[in-house]
Amino acid sequence: MIRVGLLGCGTVGGGVVQLLRANAAYLEARVGASIEVARVVVRDVEKERVPELDRGTLTTDASVLLEDPSIDVVVEVMGGVDPARRLLLRAIEAGKQVVTANKMLLALHGGDLLETAKKRGVDLAFEGAVGGGIPVIRVLRDALASDSVASLSGIVNGTSNYILTRMQADGLSFEFALKEAQAKGYAEADPGLDVDGGDAAHKLAVLAMVAFGARLDGAQIPTEGIRGIEPVDHAFADRFGYVVKHLAVAKEKGAGLGRGGPLELRVHPALVAKDAVLANIHGVLNAIAIEGRALGPCLLSGRGAGDLPTAVSVVADIVDVAIAKKSGVAGQSTRAVRLAPRVLASMDDVESRYYFRFSVFDRPGVLARITGALGERGVSIEQMVQQGRGSGEVPVDVVMLTHESKESSVQAALRVIGASDFVARPPRMIRIH
Ligand code: NAP
Ligand code: HSE
């Protein structure tokens, strides 16, 4: 028998228990041993839980689980950095196989955890940390072992994609759509991590570990969330043939089939052409578009959050680490992730097309001043529209799309325009993907 200890049993942990129960016979045949949830650490043992758990397995004391030599696999689905980090390190030091879905922990301390797991010869599996039920970690780590990734871009936060979809398609307010996402179990305990982009940045850091072997501080990834996107931006995007999506983008310059050039990582809303695949990923769905140097394009899509989709990934990890332990090859998948420190390219050097929305007072010469500020810095306008007519102190929206431009030039121009007396509000800028 494989004895599993769960650290946490909320949305994801509950899904794990359900799947282990529903597929017990198949999993037993597959692993060659039955899988039993032997201990569950929670904050409140009195809480009503669905699915129900044997009262005797529940405890608030993680030591009961970590010091039990009969526990083979420790699954961390409690979230946050500490105590999750300390508990996982203790589990690794105790020689247990470990599984986590905690992208924040991995983004901030994944390098240390992986190094410790490698030294101890155990597996640290984390498929559930990115893309919910999408097997993207396996694809990057195993299926593309002979290739190198030139770039990837993805919708990796289900909550943000759900909110953007509901705002775009159904005209819901941001607040209402967020409440729905929370009720469905998609959002983080702190939903600011979803809507301000932190969760997507954590996932991008995890993807960068497996795709580029990048050991980096996830907190350094330039990150913007979706709070500033207004219904009018969805309407203008639609008018120009785009939809607004929240993207995580990674690019590595390299020659031929080789790897190792400067690494660009960023998380921000983006205008995506309506006929592009990522534009048609709706609701809680996530998608990661990978460009392999040898493979070319590869797209993975599926449900990116929620109890059962995430549990599919976590249980797949439990099965893998259980089989590895039984077969005497524990630690092999962890050794496949080879990390080295990487310096991130500066956001100033990013080249992109841009969408600007200027809320301006409708006076003669305003357009000339805007285009002048952009033109002086080499930012060339591709399309422009002024919607309606402002009057007196009531501003009007002027929207521009640019040709490929350098981020540092765009930011410099926007600073000048934003400080001018003809703008009613700071300009809105969205990169075009
Ligand atoms: P959740 O519903 O809030 O559940 C957290 C569980 O951990 C609860 O059972 C809670 O106990 C327990 N817990 C939290 N802090 C604890 C502590 N200090 N000591 C003991 N127990 C503690 O969270 P979740 O949505 O399942 O997310 C869990 C992890 O999976 C997070 O890292 C999250 O980012 C990640 N994840 C979530 C999803 C998703 O769709 N929700 C998808 C992918 C990854 P009580 O039940 O007693 O409160
Ligand atoms: N809060 C996360 C999301 C959960 O909405 O994508 C899945 O990681």
Short description:
By secondary structure, this protein is an alpha/beta fold. It has helices at 11-22, 24-31, 62-66, 84-93, 103-120, 136-143, 158-170, 174-183, 192-195, 198-212, 231-240, 307-327, 332-335, 366-376, 407-418, and strands at 2-7, 35-41, 58-59, 73-76, 97-100, 124-125, 149-155, 214-215, 242-252, 263-273, 285-292, 296-303, 340-341, 351-360, 381-387, 396-402, 405-406, 428-432.
If you had to describe this structure to a student in words, what would you say it looks like?
The chain has 15 helices and 18 strands. The protein has helices at 11-22, 24-31, 62-66, 84-93, 103-120, 136-143, 158-170, 174-183, 192-195, 198-212, 231-240, 307-327, 332-335, 366-376, 407-418, and strands spanning 2-7, 35-41, 58-59, 73-76, 97-100, 124-125, 149-155, 214-215, 242-252, 263-273, 285-292, 296-303, 340-341, 351-360, 381-387, 396-402, 405-406, 428-432. The radius of gyration is 24 Å and the shape is elongated. A hairpin with a 3-residue loop joins β11 and β12 (296-303). It folds into three domains: 2-132 and 308-339, Rossmann fold (3-Layer(aba) Sandwich), CATH 3.40.50; 137-302, Dihydrodipicolinate Reductase, domain 2 (2-Layer Sandwich), CATH 3.30.360; 349-432, 2-Layer Sandwich (Alpha-Beta Plaits), CATH 3.30.70.260. α4 runs parallel beside α5. Strands 7, 9, 10, 11, 12, 14, 15, 16, 17 and 18 form a ten-stranded mixed sheet that branches. It binds NADP nicotinamide-adenine-dinucleotide phosphate and L-homoserine. Residues 8-13, 41-44, 47, 77-79, 83, 101-103, 128, 132, 185-186, 188-189, 305-306, 310 line the site of NADP nicotinamide-adenine-dinucleotide phosphate (NAP).
